[in-house]
Amino acid sequence: MAFNEWESSPDPAMPRSLRADAQANYxxxxxxxxxxxxxxxxxxxxxAIAAEAGVGIGTLxxxxxxxxxxxxxxxxxxxxxLCESASRMLKDRAPLEALREWMEQFVDYMLTKQGMADALPxxxxxxxxxxxxxxxxxxxxxxxxxxxxISAGRLRADVAAGDVLMALGGITLISGHEYQRELASxxxxxxLDGLVVSRDGASVTA
Length: 206
Hints:
This protein has helices spanning 20-40, 46-53, 57-63, 67-92, 95-115, 120-126, 130-151, 161-175, 181-195.
């Protein structure tokens, strides 16, 4: 790639900063890749990804020399995007509404991961700590949402963020497919019902 497309980055583990136009191409490629991996799987056409993103296949290969590079970048990007959304949602939504929306986005995130299922285990195995880092980041996002709900008096204070994350994982195992998306939403409602406190401050199920 042309040298002037990039700006230096102090962290060799992260992509160097791109010029604004190159960054836009990079972001579009990851957005389209996530959607197409979820819909068609890890073997989806890279040419189709590039075309839908509005760039040439050469641009895709300059950013991601191998399919595995694109899958890894998509996984990292989707994880970061989901984690960062927790605080953002709380700025303009009530805690319970924010938690529900985040849970729905978690199911979509898992759909993307399932689409990359054939390639992702090898990538995670090759990058020591990546799986653990992702799990910890997701747990922190859930904790942020739970703490907001607890502070507002809407959610139980005796539920661990890790347990909620495990429950969401179970929902996606049962119903984490596009044709079962409504079932996933219904199960999320049941999970939320178990987290909400009644008007007298006790848990609904107490």
